[in-house]
Amino acid sequence: MLVQMWRMVASAELQEYFADGERRAFELGNRGPVRFVGEGVLHPEIVEAYWQYGFYIFEGVLGPDELADIESDLAQFRRRLPVHRGADVDSDGNPAYGTDLEAQNVIWAKTLSDPVGGTKLAHGRHPVKMHEPEAPADAPDEVVYVVHGTLQFSDACLRVYGHPDLLGIAAAINGRDFTPFNEVLFMKDPGVGPSVAWHRDGVTHWDSPDWDQGSHGFNLMGQVFGCTPANGVWVVPGTHKLRTVDIAGMVEAAGSERLPDAVPLVCEPGDVAIVNRQAVHGSFANTSPDRRVTLNMGFHRRASVLGQTGSGIHGKVGELDAERIAQRSKAIGWGIDARRQRYPDEQPFEYLPLAGQDVRFDDAARREIVDYNALDLSV
What are the pLDDT digits (tens) for 302-312? Predict the structure, then answer.
């Protein structure tokens, strides 16, 4: 088990909440290795558990060598971030990532803050502000905690995106013609990482007559260093099945933002969680000494996307027509080919919408992938 240093720094009340949540999370039994029982058929026990609870933890998906590649890329990537909000250069004085791009990429927030809770941002889907602990005296005023469009910044992340097991999961849940959604890097650094207020993702299909528990897709969350109750995402099991949820009422009934039915994603390095976007989820400010870096990769059913109007939370507002879907889906092909180049003995995933197309990740693709997330398929 991951060493959970939060037990040494959290208050007694918070320790009890974290420990109780962890116990209940493991009692659910919705975790284990990726298991397929036929071509493109995810084991029925996994599928059943995912639809019952709204999340599942796949253990040991990313091995030590791949994690080492990711860590190496992350170290280089972090050096290339703007030295502060609004800066055009990194700490070495070189042009910083994201400063010359059209789409929004690097997101800042005040240390240990809740930057969106209780605001109208993101269509007001974070109705309640989380507790904001006092920051240490030597902490930076602001930190980078979210980066969008990560596939253009890291070959290692792009290779994870092409992982045959992960794409196989996407096909099993969303159909072989599944589409991308977006890719985000979450960084919850020790003692400074901001919170993400309780919310549900998706804004398009809640009132649709054909709405169901999978209408807004899911996120795959690859854990580079693992995650604990103190720094990881918490989920309220089963809420993905509900068309209407009163998050503010849930918090009021609980007497605090510590929702009693929520459970944490507790993961080892290399685990990948699948979380339904309709489930109530959020995370607390990271006052622990444990860091979390999550490679977030979202996927949709094609039927949920085609003909809709992008929400604007991710990517450009506009019609999500067949042309935009096809252009955005190239990223899956690039990921598959980037992975093939790194792992030539691994059987690549066959993505149905790109069947018969020779999609390569080469110098031309490196130019084309720039700003690719402006076309994110956000519903």
Answer: 999 999 987 76
Q: What are phi and psi of 273, to 5 degrees?
A: -95, 145
CA distance 325 to 330: 9
**Residue pointed to by tokens 């990313």:** 62
What pLDDT, on a 0 to 100 scale, did the predictor assign at position 124? 84
Question: What is the helix (H) or strand (E) element at residue 235, kind and residue range?
Answer: strand 233-235
Q: Under a CB-based contact definition with an 8 Å cutoff, are residues 294 and 353 in contact?
A: no
Specify the pLDDT at position 97: 85
CATH no. of 6-375: 2.60.120.620
Q: Is 104 exposed, middle or buried (0-12, 13-18, 19+ CB in 10 A)?
A: middle
On whether the CB atoms of residues 174 and 214 are closer than 8 A, the answer is yes
Rounded-to-integer distance, Cα 301 and Cα 217, Å = 7
Sequence-distant (≥ 6) Cβ neighbours of residue 111 within 8 angstroms:
135, 139, 140, 141, 142, 143, 192, 194
pLDDT at residue number 323: 95
pTM of the model: 0.93
The answer to whether residue 81 scores a pLDDT higher than 80 is yes
Q: Looking at residue 2, what is its pLDDT?
A: 41
Cα–Cα distance between 181 and 222 in angstroms, integer?
16
Query: Residue 294: left (phi > 0), alpha (psi -120 to 50), or beta?
Result: beta
| Residues near 286 by beta carbon (within 8 Å), at least 6 away in sequence | 112, 188, 189, 190, 191, 192, 193, 194, 230, 231, 292
